[in-house]
Amino acid sequence: MSKRSIPNVDWANQLESVIRQFVKEKLELIMREEIKNFLEIEQAGTPNMRNGYYQRNLDTQYGRIEGLLVPRDRKGEFQTQLFAPYQRHTGWLEEASSGCIKVA
């Protein structure tokens, strides 16, 4: 009986894909919590509310995360703290993974 194994290259690609998906899910979770906080605390008493999502790609040290769902509000005032409006490459993620997070 022969054993079937996943070639190292395929295994590495699958692992990278799983890591990118994990990072994407966690970034989206953080942004959902950010907009929830923004609307409930910072915009309390105003008629502002969620207005779906827009998609963007973000290059990280883990590869390109495609189709990242970024929440938006009706007034267009919400801005995630994870990255700047037109930023396409992360800086904080690399700092976090190396243990060198800078606090402003």
Automatic annotation (TrEMBL):
<dbReference type="Pfam" id="PF00872">
    <property type="entry name" value="Transposase_mut"/>
</dbReference>
<dbReference type="GO" id="GO:0006313">
    <property type="term" value="P:DNA transposition"/>
</dbReference>
<dbReference type="InterPro" id="IPR001207">
    <property type="entry name" value="Transposase_mutator"/>
</dbReference>
<keyword id="KW-0233">DNA recombination</keyword>
<comment type="function">
    <text>Required for the transposition of the insertion element.</text>
</comment>
<keyword id="KW-0815">Transposition</keyword>
<comment type="similarity">
    <text>Belongs to the transposase mutator family.</text>
</comment>
<dbReference type="GO" id="GO:0004803">
    <property type="term" value="F:transposase activity"/>
</dbReference>
<dbReference type="GO" id="GO:0003677">
    <property type="term" value="F:DNA binding"/>
</dbReference>
<keyword id="KW-0238">DNA-binding</keyword>
<protein>
    <recommendedName>
        <fullName>Mutator family transposase</fullName>
    </recommendedName>
</protein>
